[in-house]
Write a structure and sequence with these properties.
The structure is a single chain. This protein is α+β, with helices and mostly antiparallel strands. The protein has 20 helices and 10 strands. Strands 1, 2, 3, 4, 5, 6, 7 and 8 form an 8-stranded mixed β-sheet that branches. A two-stranded antiparallel sheet has the order 9-10. Helix 17 runs antiparallel to helix 18. The longest helix is centred in the middle third of the chain and has 29 residues. Belongs to the acyl-CoA dehydrogenase family. It comes from Kibdelosporangium philippinense. This is Acyl-CoA/acyl-ACP dehydrogenase.
């Protein structure tokens, strides 16, 4: 298929893979933004105008209620389910118009996570009713002094002597915390030690004992600091206690962090359309800016990185939707979508910003919005370092202990992904097994840059066997994070290839995608060589792993990129 068909195009968007109600709501969301127009979008961004009109649209059209209510809480409504494929599609649509609009959706996903994982039928029914009323949710986890360190919460519940509790403490940087009627709050029970102290409970921002301190960001978003002062917590408000509360926090992030990649894909896609149209119509020294070699190089790299993001993320959806207690491979692909795809979005938008130059700072440019928004994505739901450290836990099993699994199909069917709310205890990651990564690479060995990257991947596995990190290096985060970057590229490339095979991707584009991966791998290898703690054997490996890509598809890919000039511009 033409790779340009992978890009969201609002004027001709028709997600035929989905059921009629899903298509209607995705299309209605796009039409709402397009009818408001670019001037309104940009004016509200620069004026830091809260997006209440968007939340009103969401409520009036049951957008969040339809997409974010699991089937068992849908009261028989066949259109309501938790469907990762269509949630990803909505995340991309909202990201296309800016992270300010994606954000209330994202934090509603997080706020609902502990509720939908709970067996508290009263709390579940209440949350479903609030969604149906057009309300949003919030995830009350992080605190000003402790961040998201759930071992050190200062939110304390004290028994009230009548079977309930009084909650006292504060939460900080809580999206939707200003306005959510379902706030999942993490805390601890006074006088209890060990894991049994943890608790998740449901709160309501409209309650008089819920005190909004301030909005903590200078932007359109509702991002609150709030305090609970003798807030009454009844038995029907308790969502989880003990180790289940701890696991609910981590499993919620497992669900929610996945949406960051599609927000970044949408944002980068809009910026690409604007940048190529601007540059191709801009005349300097008597010729279009796009005649300059360095400009074409920047566009081709931005485009191929964006296609790689799309391929990996689309394939990761399938593993999420097909997950079960015996197949938890998604727990590796998830932090990669969070860490890798969001940093790729940063690179894409930086490349486009370099091309459009001063235009990327003007008030009538969407690129200005994208440059501002994209930096937040790698820092939400765990930093890059946190997610890389998580990714490394899977490395031995992935590289050396493959297991056979049934083939995972493309999953855009109208199914409820109910396993995500019964993931179980958040432990045992080292026991998860993966299918043999070599298979995907073998199928594309005829593509020169794939062959080169395969050599690099094989050499990395040999490095881990022959010159593994020493005990001291394992405690050196600076060293292990670079190791994690190298390992991540291997997994990233595997799912890109799997999706390329499924859709029949143009091999010129695939070759260009892997040209980028070869260069990135070489760059991280050089970085490993320069680490203070790298051994002689590791340094020798690093220099031997460097490759110059042999791709010859630049001109063919450039023709696809330049054909996007003038294809889409948001309505004024």
């Amino acid at each position: 298929m033409p790779s340009t068909d992978l890009l969201l195009h609002p004027h001709r968007y028709d997600p035929g893979q989905f059921d009629p109600e899903t298509k209607r709501l995705l299309r209605a969301t796009i039409d709402w933004f397009e009818s408001r127009g670019k001037r309104k979008l940009l004016a509200d961004f620069h004026g830091k105008v809260r997006y209440q009109d968007f939340l009103d649209f969401v409520g009036e059209n049951d957008v969040f209620a339809t997409f974010l209510t699991p089937a068992r809480d849908a009261d028989g409504n066949p259109d309501k389910r938790w469907d990762t494929a269509r949630i990803a599609a909505m995340s991309e649509v909202l990201g296309f118009y800016g992270i300010n609009y994606w954000y209330p959706w994202q934090v509603t996903v997080l706020g609902l996570g502990p509720v939908w994982q709970s067996d508290n039928a009263v709390a579940r029914q209440r949350a479903a009713s609030e969604l149906a009323r057009g309300q949003v949710a919030a995830f009350g986890l992080s605190e000003k002094e402790h961040g998201a360190d759930i071992y050190a919460s200062d939110m304390v519940l004290t028994p009230d002597g009548e079977g309930g509790y009084r909650a006292n403490g504060g939460k900080y940087y809580i999206g939707n915390g200003d306005c959510a009627t379902t706030v999942s709050v993490f805390g601890r029970i006074a006088g209890v030690e060990g894991p049994d102290q943890y608790v998740f409970f449901a709160a309501d921002s409209t309650h008089p004992n819920y005190l909004l301190v301030r909005n903590v960001v200078p932007a359109q978003m509702y991002v609150s600091q709030f305090e609970l002062s003798d807030y009454p917590v009844a038995a029907q408000d308790i969502l989880h206690t003990g180790e289940a509360a701890f696991s609910a926090a981590l499993n919620t992030v497992n669900i929610g962090k996945f949406n960051l990649c599609f927000g970044g894909i949408g944002l980068a896609t809009h910026a690409l359309y604007e940048a190529i149209t601007h540059a191709h119509n801009r005349i300097l020294y008597g010729k279009p800016v796009t005649n300059f070699t360095h400009v074409r190089t920047g566009f081709v790299e931005a485009y191929t990185r964006l296609i790689g993001m799309r391929l990996f993320s689309d394939r990761a959806v399938d593993y999420f939707r097909s997950a079960n207690a015996e197949d938890r491979r998604y727990l590796l692909y998830n932090p990669i979508t969070k860490m890798k795809v969001t940093t790729e979005a940063e690179k894409v938008i930086a490349l486009l910003g370099d091309v459009v130059a001063a235009k990327g700072f003007e008030s009538d440019s969407f690129t200005t919005v994208a440059k501002s928004d994209v930096t937040g994505l790698p820092k939400l739901e765990g930093t890059v370092a946190v997610n890389l450290a998580l990714i490394l836990k899977f490395m031995p099993a992935y590289l050396f202990q493959p297991q056979d699994y049934p083939a995972v199909p493309t999953r855009t069917d109208s199914a409820d992904d109910e396993f995500l709310f019964r993931q179980g205890p958040a432990r045992g990651l080292g026991k998860i097994r993966f299918h043999d990564w070599h298979g995907a690479y073998r199928k594309f060995a005829h593509v020169p840059t794939v062959a080169q990257f395969t050599e690099q991947a094989e050499s990395f596995a040999q490095l881990i066997q022959n010159a593994p990190p020493t005990p001291e290096q394992q405690g050196d985060l600076d060293f292990t994070l670079t190791l994690g970057e190298l390992f991540t590229l291997i997994v990233y490339g595997q799912l890109i290839l799997e999706q390329a095979e499924i859709i029949g991707l143009d091999e010129d584009v695939l070759g260009a995608v892997f040209e980028v991966l070869v260069r990135d791998f070489s760059g991280h290898a050089v970085a490993l060589h320069g680490k203070r703690s790298s051994t002689q054997a590791q340094q020798e490996w690093a220099l031997g792993a460097v490759r110059k890509p042999v791709s010859s598809s630049f001109d063919q890919v450039w023709e696809q990129v330049v054909a996007l000039a003038g294809v889409y511009e948001m309505k004024p």
